[in-house]
## 1
Amino acid sequence: MPSIEQIQYVKAPIGKVFAALTTEPGLAAVWTDRLSVTPALGAVNTFHFGEGKPDRMKVVAFEPDRRVIWECIDSDPQWIGTEISFELEQRRDKVAVTLKQEKWRAVTEFYRFCNYNWGVFLLSLKGYCEDGKGLPYQDRKF
């Protein structure tokens, strides 16, 4: 099964990076400002993009300052069943953030579009953690 895998290096404390990936204020600044998030194992987080139905992600792994994994339970049919993980590793004064979206059924045009947009997400995460300004969906040009 195809996977998307990307890495970004963020010059910020690991706790700040983890909070940006797991809390409403962080994910609102980085991904979308229309969301409902609970940073806990088993929680179902909801993310709204545009006018369609929301994406729902179940938190299936939650290890503070180390990793979080979401299982997509409702979204575009190509996303349902995929797992999105963020693994953090302290490397001197930076945090290596490895993002993976695994269990894609096929490499499609949507897969390629998402691959690009995960890169934008990681750039937004870096900007938010380092400079206080992310690039959520509502501020992007498509």
Note: The first helix runs from residue 14 to 22.
## 2
Amino acid sequence: MYGKALAPEYQGALSDLSVNSSLTEVLTAAEEQMAAARRGGDPRETARAALAVAEAHRRLGDIRAADRAWKTSYRTARSAGDASAMAWALWSGGTLARQRGALPLAFRLLRHAADTGKRSGDVVAYGYSLAGLAETGRIQGDYPAVEALHGELLAEARRRGEARHTVWALEGIAQIHRNTGRYDTAYAMFEEAAEIAERADDRRGHAWALRGLADIVSVRDGDTGHALELLTRAEATCRTMNLSSALAYNHKMRANVLYRAGRYPEAARMYELALGEFREMDEPRGEALARLGGVKCRARLGEDPARTAAELAELRVVLDRIGLRHAREMVDRAHGELGLTAPEETR
């Protein structure tokens, strides 16, 4: 039913690159192609190469370089009147904005990308942009608004036999189920995503699915050993492909698993590792979540309750500023979990 996973963001002379190409390999090839296209006076090819440069930098956690590259791609595509390339550049910029925690900007760029992709007739750019909007809403915690869109995108991906997008949609819906306590449904969807990704040789999608399965195995079953084994398998893929963001989230999940098992000193060290990784790539959502885990660990290890309450209050402000509703709820629940008085407006 599903063919081999494809990477449509690698275009033009770079279309032979695989979804599993290491990001350093992608970056080298894309920078060389962008320079060659500029020398040859080919703005369309320059825009496509700059897109690949932007995506490689984004996934490697080099935010500033990614920001420069997607804007270069967009400006070059616009100068050439290439609406399809403009849509892809906007998609890349919107995805980067989401990664940086700038959710209102992500929504604006991704809506513009979807409109531009639709006008250009590029159904793949249009679909990726809609998927980006759905994921941004999910990360924000606006589940009622985006669950139906996730479902529509899943149905379309299944109809087209697009393995990579099917895996993405399954993982997104599974995360909604997990966050709303429907663990069995979430597990089944993460499991299907892992199977499809493995058959389609989508190693990135497979690593994220394993992370989701580890979370469920830990929170639902209390099976710490199995959860850590799944995360170790996923981590190997992240390191092979230089997936900096995915690796940081893997480490944060490992810390979550250790925390649930009551292994607080180990969990604290792992949260600190993830925190450093998120800060290095300027990813505020991951940074805030890693900070929250660290606060909870230190509280369990005997930190002064007043200090814990102050740190939670600060995190609540940070998460409000980013607009992460589900994460803010996690902060509020931490008060009860740690025996602290909840903020007035949440009681």
Note: Residues 87 and 116 are 5 Å apart (CA to CA).
